[in-house]
Design brief:
disordered N terminus; Leucine-rich repeat, LRR (right-handed beta-alpha superhelix); seven-stranded mixed beta sheet; seven-stranded parallel beta sheet
Length: 274
Amino acid sequence: MAQPMPRQAYSTHEETPEPEIDKSLPRHDQAARFCEIYKLTNFTIDPETGVIDVNGDVDLSFGFRESIPVQFGKVTGNFDCHCTKLTSLKGAPYFVGGYFDCGATSITSLEYAPQTVNGSFLCWRTHITSLKGSPRRIGGDFVCDNTDLTSLEGLPDSIRGYINLSNNKITDYGILDLLYVSNLKYIYFDDDKDKTSVPGPSYGDGLISKILNKAHTSRDIATAQKKLKLFGFEKLADFSMEFIAKEEKHEQEVQERARLNAERIANSPPLPWD
């Protein structure tokens, strides 16, 4: 399968701190100053909250801020803050029409991440340990390789491209949850040790990936479980408690709908031809 070229992971720019935003200013003025510093155009600022909506791209990459000092709302283009010193995504937009890239930063969670990203979502080479806070819907790829992930809790509901989980620390249950993500095209999972020193994303496409992708195509999950156990991946062959709870709730809802439907039929008047 074709793989995108890795992004540049380190800046060659001279480290020049960006101008500070005067916190004593009204929120609107702080937002206006931020837009001036980053040369943003085609934006609107809410006069009361200072929330910035941008019709176009926002590029904060290769910067030296540890936080986003303003709050974005909707960005119709790309939002790029990769290769910065960010420790949190607080201030990020709730909607991104293009891609969202926070890779090669110091973030430890996806809290405050956009909930809808129409393009790809990239959080590679970060210190996240779970996917809590990740977008519910991703219109492109989900690139989260080379992180500190130990859990897939918080998986998106829909991914319209591939998901790259290579070179993480996931050794326990939850991998099979991937087979129930809507629209997912391909899964990269295995370790790819030869590429961990190369700047940018890496793509593990070994035994576990092959088992998962075959099961995803055929919907034969039972066989995937058997193969994972056969090759010594017992802990990966179980669903997460989060997924099991979700399935139990879904089954209860199905049963309740069936009960209500049966009750409605039983209480309805007889048809003329009965």
